[in-house]
Amino acid sequence: VVKTVDKDFAFKLVAGFAIFLQTALTVYGYLELSAFYEQFGIYTSELELGTSTILSAGYSYSFSSIMNSVDDVPYLGPAVPVFIFFVIALAFVTMLMSGVKKMADNLSMALVGAVLLLTLFIAPVLGVMHGLERGKVGLQSNTGLDWSRGVNKEYTIVTKEKQRLTGKLVVSDTKSTFLLVGTTVYKIDNKTNRVVRENVLTPKTESSN
Predict the structure, then answer these.
(1) Contact 178/168 with Cβ under 8 angstroms?
(2) Integer Cα distance of 65 and 86 in angstroms
(3) Per residue in 23-50, pLDDT tens?
(4) How many CA atoms lie within 13 A of 57 on its CB side?
């Protein structure tokens, strides 16, 4: 009896992996954003974080972590991303082809799968890079300045109390804007431009609790 691939099982396996990947990226993205914003005295309960925002953050941080391993691991660094996706592809192929193909065939298929997964993983970044490049070209054509090294951004908000605040944007949603001015984070209501809260940030010392 010649064994063949169970198409129904293959579909369930792909669907299950997609759900797992989306859940993992969502959880990772949410935890990363929570930890990041907490350093500025901002809690995620104050923000309107959509699923797409959290997923994008999860993907971005995952990509950075995997790509950073290239520099963090001596000599073998460039092979780390390929190895990670090879392990994932091998597990998938082994479950799908159990009893159908020889192990040597599974390894070659897993290698091809790893290359495809790595390509799919990197593809969205190419879109980001293209967007950044287009933005720099647009800025240069409109201003005549050299933006090749990036853009420094400062935001100015005139509050309801006629106070002019200029600083770095930490995060903004439909309800509030959080602006870092010096070592103070201002929470500003978008509808009224009223300063709702000020978070004064100071570095911890050995004597501080």
Answers:
(1) no
(2) 17
(3) 999 999 999 999 999 999 999 999 998 8
(4) 18
